[in-house]
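Lecture 7 notes. Example A: sequence first, then its structure tokens.
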Amino acid sequence: MDERSPVLEAKGVSHWFGDNRVLHDINLKVARGQIVSLVGPSGCGKSTFLRAVVGTHLPNAGDIVVYSGESHATGRRVQGPGRDRGIVYQHYSLFPFLTAQQNVAFGLMLDETSIASRLFMFPKWRRLRKAHLEEAAAFLERVGLGEAINLYPSAMSGGMRQRVAIAQALIMKPEIVLLDEPFGALDEATREDLQKMLLTLYDENCQTLEKKEKPPHTIFIVTHELNEAIYVGDRVIGLSQFWGWEEAGHKAGPGATITYDRKAPVYHPGEERDFEEFAHQRHEIRRIVFDPEAKHAPAKHRTFWEDKPVRQSSRGPA
């Protein structure tokens, strides 16, 4: 993945609520086709940062930019919610009166038609509706729900409903999909199945890159589970309020900043994990990001763009 093909960039993002300083000078660039995991202690501002990217709560200082092409000339400053960013929350919200296929196609209907066009241009709407449903079926197949297109949410498990929610986001073809603790409410086996689904999407990215084409999925996942962060992402970012702000000249904690940004191992969906390697990186993240006594200079462990691959995979390095 190439730093020169950005999708998302945070430039000097800071946020506060009165005297409560939450985020401090967040600088971050996400390349197209990456799956980036964000971790951090409770209360460090992960959700605040995610809401800033979504556009529902803009930062007090700094900018967030989304790019539609491969150069900085295509950047759009986030000033509110937009279809270039998709979001999936832990608590999925599906329409109970629609099937899985109809739920996934719903966004396309709202985006490409109006009530008037559906009423007064019915033949055209019928053709478009057929195309939407066919596309929805294809996305459900990609997330492993090809046999469940006619099920209603009440007949689905929690994992199935979350897959539908992810397909809802993917079908709109946003520049980036944001996942906010998406698997937190699921049992361990279901969670592992969905983690492998994300690895399948990453495989799709790698296949398109081999053809010199634009990778279709850029995913930014917030999770509290370190093994998950290391497993599904090709990059782990640590956001923390525990850093050497005194040495940087601050009289009080200015808020959380990025204290860790490094490559993660890259795996095939069915490939066995190297838990020794996981343990090493997990220990490193705990020491740098989660330790309240940490006094690290933030830049010291923000080395993603300079790091060599953590391991070689037949998919190739990130």
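Example B, a different protein, same format:
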Amino acid sequence: MGFSLNGFRITKLSNGIHVLSENISYVKSFSLGFWFDTGSKNESVKNNGISHFIEHMLFKGTSRRSAAKLSDEIESLGGYLNAFTSKEHTCYYGRGLSQYIGKTFEVISDMVLNSQFKAKDIRNEQGVIIDELYDINDSPEELIFDKFESNIYSGNFLQHPIIGTEENINSFDKSMILEYIEKNYTNKNLYIAASGLVNHDQIVNLADKYFGRRKTGESHKTKSLRLRKSNDLVVNKEVQQIHAIIGKPVDGYNSKKRVAINILSHILGEGSSSRLFQTLREKNGITYQINTFLNSFYNVSSFGIYFSTNPRNFNKAMNLVYAELEKFKKRPISKKEFSRARAYVKGNIILGMENTTNRMMRMAQSFIYFNRIKTLEETVAEIDKLDQAELEQLAVEIFNPDSFVRTIISPEDLQTHR
């Protein structure tokens, strides 16, 4: 079953796999991604980190190719292989010249279908990932984001950090890996997406060739999210600076409000002309890093304000942040701020679409989330339709200081106030 819509072609194979493609005739390359609808959202306390662990293990060799050969077969043709794990997805992807898409497809298929998971490789990778975990723990500007999301999503499926725990990582073995793969790496959970100078029918034929006889398996159902009230969290570490996030859960991809919240995030704290940057860095000189962020999932987003500063300036910085939040009740968004933020967001999206990997990723995520592919024109139109008065009303609702929780990494116990 297949159809074409807005320049995209979509085919669902009889065994449940979806193939998505976008042909771009003016490039000579492709980006190809194998997306599995699984991540740390599908883990338990006991096996947290296994999605990320498996992502690493698929590069360790198959029954046909060693780890070195997997990379060499692609790199010798001028391409590359990579992968990532998020809370909601695991993606294995490659990029190269268009004439080599068949080889890239074959290699990624081999990784997915024929990885051996040798005991020696598992032990070696446990050491590698534990080192990665230590790197995160030694980097407060990274660690704080894991702590923040574990705090605001405590008690539900988004609370688990992607990398997992040292105890879990050391416990993973071949039987646990195969059990997880059988349950989560099913055809119904697999989306194969390609963007660039690609031939849709060729990709469909390759998918049928390598996965045609594979069992369909089950697809994941969207989980309902039950948010609990969170409290402030302070983590004491040997650091020189205090790192802080002030934030809360807000609307996710499934909400029309998310676009407006993204614009508000830019007005408040993204870019050197934002309110927070001007107040904390330019006017008061008490922080080097200050920015807002919006990390989105299907049914929720993590919105936060991140900054770092020295202990003697911490309370002043915190008070200035809360003062800026309060100003949205009294100080309307100016036409200049509104126009700048819309132009900034649209510019970032449009510039990102000049990269085939970004286009492939946007296409796949759109289909997984919405069962359709949103066009660039749709996204831009949503931004253009935003009403300034409605945005100001939403700002008062979202930027309520009493609704924010604080996550802090500090060199010592702090007496803090708002």
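Note on Example B: The longest strand covers residues 242-250. The chain has a mean pLDDT of 93.
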